[in-house]
Fold these 4 entries.
Entry 1:
Amino acid sequence: MPTVRSNGITLAYESFGSEQDETVLLVAGLGTQMLRWSDAFCSSIAANGFHVIRFDNRDAGRSTHLSGTPVPDFAALAAAAATGTTPDVPYTLADMAADTIGLMDALEIDKAHIVGRSMGGMIAQLIAATYPARVLSLTAIMSSTGAPGLPQAEPEVMAMMMRPGPSPATDLEGYVAHAIAFARRIAGPGYPFDADAQREVILGELAHGLDPAGTSRQVAAIAATGSLRPLLGAIRAPALVIHGSDDPLVPIMAGEDIAKHIAGARFLKIEGMGHDLPAPRYAQVVEAIADNARRAGATR
């Protein structure tokens, strides 16, 4: 798997389609790897005439893991949030945005269409706001501004996400069952849940490089970054926000908040979708991303 040096770390990536086409850069979510952008999804975007790149964020997959830094103290993070102070963390989402720009630099990509899901959607917003000359268009999927007062995840879902599962080293089937149960809970009711496909993804991520401590550091990065809402007025790239009507982890009002604060943003609500990207909706989501990219071309 190819890698590049970026912002002082190593990022692993894969590409689809012709390098002669405009680039769509896919930014992964919290604790997940590039594999969550499935081959079928990436190939579908490429078939629309784009060069597609997916990559592992820092602390995920085969990119650099900051194993020498301590796992954040979540009680300290909560206390800092309650007092409005900035917690001491290894990095913030701004550093992860700089990683992404460094990836583009290393691959000699001047500008790209930035597409992020969940935490990746927050990173995408930061890139569009702080590196406007590098962004052709922005798409945020099942994401948030992180602004205070927005609805939070359902308590049961948050408890499931934070509850440690069995170790895959000693209880592989228990680990897989735990992960599938969470995936089932955050999936939307509008589409059949494919447990076999989820199992394949989970085992793929295990082989690719699992790191629960890295996920904790990414959680801390989100907490330390705070609200993105004050930055969104600086975004000039055509923006698209996609959100499921039944997202129990990042409620749809969070996506609506992004669209509300970016001038000219379009909002696509997908009925029955949860905090996932079901295969039956690939064509709709890919077409929406392509349409948003064409808006950028029309603007130029």
Entry 2:
Amino acid sequence: MVIPVLVGLAALLVWGLLAGAAQVRCVDAARAGARAAARSETPAEVLRVARAAAPEGAEVSVGRTGDLVRVRVTVPLPRFPVELTAQADALDESTLETVEGGGGP
């Protein structure tokens, strides 16, 4: 009776570790994609960078709102019983030149 409970507990712990590691990879992938987008890389390069760092089967989306670039990485439900999602935002570096270089003596 104790052995099946221990096996189930061990499996649950392993699943939790895998889910935690996948979430960390999602966060890293979103940050890497946002950094690439902030450097004004091409959209294809941003997706390549984010997908390279993301867990297998993750969905990557890139959006822009004004000067803010947003990268979202999601691992859909079939892989884990919960949806893992991470999002990173970055300010486009080309807009910083305009702000820093504006109107001073």
Entry 3:
Amino acid sequence: MLADIADWGGGGFAPLLLDDALRALHSPLPVRTVDMVLCAALGRGYDAGFDGPGFLREIVDVCVERVRQDDPSFVPALPGPSVYGALEGEVLARIEEAAPAVREAVARAPFRSVPDVVPSLERLVSDVDPDLGFRLFLRVMKVYAVSITWSQYEGYVGLGGRFGYHAEVVDDGNLQIPD
């Protein structure tokens, strides 16, 4: 599955995924926080035995291998500071606005429940990268089928545009917007 994701877009997605994995892996986030965010994004229940850092290292290995298919001399480097720090407050506001609905949706999924997913996402935004945090927040919204308003949707699309996202990054057809 990871190889397919890294190969998406003719391998064009691998450098971004590599940067995300390295950024999270070498961040100050506690392992439990990394585990919770990854479990929620993957749609699996939180399991104290889940090895989030190990999963991130696996992503790094797969992405490096994919990038080297196009550039055999590629050497991965730690990413620099996020260029999206100015958007931290806006991402945190979107998460805070959706927090009650996220908590409710996660609670309705007992086999996929992840405690503290909201504070874990907030910490990811603040301590790692608002861009990565927003993308994983959107992923959690989709995985747990969190219902949103048109106003929220428009806000997500607008914020995604400020990150330079293609429209399908924000909504690939899986955001839950009532008719």
Entry 4:
Amino acid sequence: MLYRELPIVKVDGDSFVPSTHPVVEEMPLSVTVNGRHALTAMTSPTMLREFVVGFLYTERIVTGFHEVESIRIEGNTVSVLTKNPLAILTSHKTVLSGCGGSTSFLDAGRLPGIVSDLTLSREVIRAATKETLDSEPHRITGGIHLVGLFDGEGRAIRIAEDIGRHNALDRVVGHGLLEGIDFSRTFAVSSGRISSEMVRKCLLANIPVIVSRGATTTAAVEAAEAGGLTIIGFVRSRKMNIYTGWERVRGASTPPPSG
């Protein structure tokens, strides 16, 4: 379950009423890779296999699911064996559930560039954003992030929910790896801000477009420009902001020169 009903005291003006309210679940997930502790993540208790596969991929521990020998999940502990027994993070990581995401350091110059000729219509972008945000747990709790992975026609490949948007992105990437999806023909939609960490994960997965109903950051824009990733933010009603890679949005006019 993504949430539990917990007892609360509801305040309305001068009244105090005992009640209950749905609260999102958060659990520590300990991951070992080839016998060594690699990760402790604060995450939602769903799609754990997909999360681990996606995380291993976006952290460059594996280059694909074919390098994973086995994944064993027991409670809040995951044990992974890879075909390369030396594959392991250089240091232990703690991934928190907040907006900080993982502790990875962003070096845009060492990230791969996007290789894709995908273009999207504005209608597909708007519809995918609406579909991603249509989540009952999100409406009920107000405490869950969502990330959707869509094909170029706007068909949902997978929509994942998590207390952290970075974890949700790893989940849809993991699902794509397990299903053999060609990421160059996909785009991602996030319920939250597009950070540099979200950009880093998209560049590593070769997802050419990331979309959000919210904002982005300067570091994310700079990394996206360097890697050829399209960032689209503030997708609301008939409006959207294209920050980078405008040529992937059909009908977009050439932006004026900066500065």
